[in-house]
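Structure ticket #2291
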Amino acid sequence: MIKPIRIVEVKSEIGAGTRGSSMGIDAIKIAALDFGSPFFKKFKATEIPTENHLLLEPVVHDYAKRIKGIYSLNERIAKEIQKTLKREEIPIVLAGDHSSALGTISGIRMAYPEKRLGVIWIDAHADMHSPYTTPSGNMHGMPIAGILGEDNKERQQNKPDDETIEYWEKLKNLGGITPKIQYNDLVFIALRDFEPPEEALIKNNKVRVFNLPEIRKKAVERIAIEALNYLDHCDLIYVSFDVDSMDSRISSGTGTPVPNGITEKEAGNLIYYIMRSKKICCFEMVEINPTLDRENLMAENAFEILQKATNQLSHDF
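Resolution: structure written out below.
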């Protein structure tokens, strides 16, 4: 039986340091219109209310900016993802900044508390900082630490205030489950930009990383197979695709572009092969920022990748 797809829209950017990613979803919709595609008419959609009004307020918590809003937003996302999965639908999450992933993963675990979840994180960045290690305070750099329940105090650089710590603990425990995954339930693909505190976690916990030289040596079909095989012990797999996984020559339409990434063709093929797994329960795409782009190129590339993901999940499309 093919489960129906539901698009979950999260037009939030309060976790990012650069403005504009809240407009990424509309940019994808414009790309679909330009291609003459009925994509967004095909699937039911739910839009999550945001906390973007906080962008007009002063930053109170330096080491976890807008953490109260991040918590409220992710709580909403988690409940919606849980409901979507319980309705036997597959959520495709289109979000602004990557902090939304904490809510998405929490919702999957809330829906399936007894099942083991694998995470394929396709991103230039590790997003493994905590309020104790973050150099920026931007919370889109923290979702992986949050789902791992990882403070990384061994590499502590900051002294967060009591309220920041309180909300960080609430985020880690979202859905009443912490940690949500173990280190060997995590795979990074196209990772290449991270700080020493994150590097220490990756090395010490032997996290599986498919970097660009390995991708080029083996080709993306083999990488997809190896990533899925590595997570074979997991019951379910969630795939998160940050558009900055692509090379900065392609990915100017994102807040933190990084050179030496995968091409848009490699990204599309990678998603195509990964999404063929019957264990895929959710796909998330994030960090498209049309204010930094030219001629909506990033959203057009992202839309083509999004189509490849949904084509594997739904024969009706």
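Closing remark: Residues 35 and 217 are 33 Å apart (CA to CA).
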